[in-house]
Write a structure and sequence with these properties.
Layout (H helix, E strand, L loop, with lengths): L1 H20 E4 L3 E3 L3 H4 L6 E4 L14 H11 L6 E4 L4 E7 L2 E7 L5 E11 L2 E10 L2 E8 L5 E8 L2 E7 L5 E8 L8 E5 L5 E6 L3
Parallel strand pairs: 1-5
Antiparallel strand pairs: 2-3, 3-4, 5-6, 6-7, 7-8, 8-9, 9-10, 10-11, 11-12, 12-13, 13-14
Length: 203
Amino acid sequence: MRKIFLFISILLFSNSNFAQEIIKLDEKYFIDFNEIFRKNGIIEIRELVNYGIEFEYPEPHNEEERSELIEKERNHREAFKIFKPKKGSYLLEGKGFTMRFEVNEKGEFIGITTIKIIIDSENCEMKFSFKNGRFTTANFKDSKGNTFITYEDIGTYTKLNQFNRDGKINLSIIVQKGDEYDKGIEIYYYPNGQIKSERDNKK
């Protein structure tokens, strides 16, 4: 009995230490997913540092104002600086958004990064697989486990595939490394998988 008690105590102590090792980031931190394409598969974390870029008051007066201000300024890149995480396990939490990831001693993402986000009142999950700090594949699933978006890093370009509710592909977007997401080549498909049309947004 004493051995069992000792084992349980060690287990609880280990779990407690593990929980303490997770570094939590609040909603002032932001993931710019468009940079995944321009930065060759590297995810960058941005930290909001300029609260008063377009507002009368440079600093929020309470948590509610702070949350509203962060939400409004998410899309203003000049309000953010690049956050370089140190080695460790992280949890980034925002409104309807959580992200768990690990970083090595070089500040690179490693292993599997899991993102949970609410879209149209539906819980969705996205997983990125990383190698040498760059993601190689990613998939986006809805609450029923159906995959509706995949990403794939293919040498000089990144390919996004979008699927319908039946699991059939209906759109692919090919983005050359260094280009913005909206400069990609869009390929539309018929229900049978045959190509319907293509559009090059760089032209």
